[in-house]
Task: structure prediction
Amino acid sequence: MSALLRRVHETDGYPTVWPSDVGRWLVSDSAYEAWVADLNGSVVGHVSLSRPGSRAATRVWVAATQRPIERLAAVTRLFAAPEARGTGVGRRLLQHAVDAAHRRDLWPVLDVRQDGSPGGSRLYEAAGWRVVGSAPLRLATEVVLPFDYWIGPPPPN
Result:
């Protein structure tokens, strides 16, 4: 998994700051669940569903959904191998995380670094997500970047 994430990092700059412990970064202590995508016997993608952290995005998400933070689930660590792009892997991973959030009666949310690449935004928009705010986010001591905050489709009830 580390090699796959390294290829994504070198191709897309994601994650922006390389984690000191890749395994812990992929599935943090706040994770509900995580999944990988397999294509022809090779892992080609990953997504995690987590409790949202306490940061600026929280206020934006709570205001946009009118739900307390405990009723939200963050879709995180979503990436696909460069060689698997265009196969629908990212779309299927995203939908899997949304379905898992809905089974828990949680509203899915996510944050996306503003990097000028429209690929992620097109994926989220096509899946019914919308931007509800933007703000800088501190990723490391010297790294503060602008992020967009998105909400996904609400739970069915």
